[in-house]
Design brief:
The protein is of the alpha/beta class and 277 residues long. It folds into 2 domains: 5-131, Rossmann fold; 142-276, Rossmann fold. It is built from 8 helices and 10 strands. The protein has helices at 13-29, 48-71, 86-93, 116-123, 150-166, 190-214, 229-237, 260-267; strands spanning 5-8, 33-39, 77-83, 99-103, 127-131, 142-145, 170-176, 220-226, 242-246, 273-276. The longest helix has 25 residues, at 190-214.
């Protein structure tokens, strides 16, 4: 595995923010950056070759301008334009990378994000950082959603390293909710609710214990809330500098499917969000 950060470049405002985020991280960690723009949509129609060549040339101009911007920050950068399926091109380019950084796509047909982003995040072999067109200047805190799984252990380790690097507090978040019962049951036994909350608090304390030992000077805040995990994470992350969630690694077709929590967090993106596997 290399220590490169691969960044998808599209020329949108969010993509420029994605480049800026990657450059800032690369500069602080001595990493190099690979900028990639992909022209998609070709189907082999008559006369398409000339259109495609023009599109690729325009894309090369965009990515070259971004590369010049990156070099001005003293970061080593390579840049290229290609054509094909944007999802597979980005995934393949980042197969050995430390990180893949992409922009949150503009709304499309009523959706919050276009079709490529979730598939890129789900199919990538490395951690993917999704950057929205949102100004995070002045925000504080690194929020991480944890649920006791192996992948959430990786998520909190990634989040803690980022919090330590940036000098930000780590906010470890977990959500609990009672079993959904069909019908009109609106009251749950007090003991049942109390035990759910207590078990979740114990889970969070257990997962942060090792982080406290590794980063003794890191400020760690724990939040245990009643509710849907994705909603709880996004509510708390709305004022944060970074949110981190995990997604389970898969193979085959299911590799392109996200877990429900990470998918919902990305569909309602409120800050820069890393998806760790």
């Amino acid at each position: 595995m290399s220590d490169s950060i691969v960044v998808g470049v599209t020329g949108t405002p969010a993509a420029r923010r994605a480049v800026d985020w990657a450059v800032a991280r690369a500069a602080s960690r001595g990493q190099d950056v690979v900028l990639l723009t992909v022209v998609g949509g070709a189907i082999g129609a008559v006369g398409e070759a000339e259109v495609l060549a023009t599109a690729v040339a325009a894309a090369e101009s965009v990515v070259a301008a971004e590369a010049d911007r990156v070099r001005a920050e003293g970061v080593t950068v390579t840049a290229r334009a290609s054509h094909g399926n944007p999802t597979t091109e980005l995934i393949d380019a980042a197969k050995d990378a430390a990180l893949l950084v992409i922009a949150s796509e503009p709304r499309e047909h009523g959706r919050r994000n276009g079709p490529h982003g979730p598939h890129v995040v789900a199919g990538a072999r490395c951690t993917v950082v999704v950057v929205p067109d949102v100004d995070i200047e002045g925000r504080h805190g690194i929020v991480v959603g944890i649920d006791g799984s192996d992948v959430s252990k990786k998520a909190i380790e990634f989040a803690a390293a980022e919090a330590d690097r940036l000098g930000e507090p780590l906010i470890a978040v977990s959500a609990w909710s009672p079993v959904v019962v069909p019908g009109d049951l609106t009251m749950y036994p007090d003991m049942y609710v109390a035990d759910l909350e207590s078990a979740t608090k114990g889970l969070v304390e257990g997962m942060t214990e090792g982080i406290r030992a590794t980063y003794p000077d890191l400020e760690i805040v724990t939040r245990v809330e009643d509710g849907d995990p994705a909603s709880v994470i996004n509510d708390i992350a709305a004022t944060a500098r970074l949110a981190v969630v995990g997604t389970h690694g898969r193979t085959g077709f299911t590799r392109f499917l996200l877990g429900s929590t990470s998918e919902q967090v990305l569909q309602h993106l409120v800050t820069v969000t890393a998806v760790v596997r």
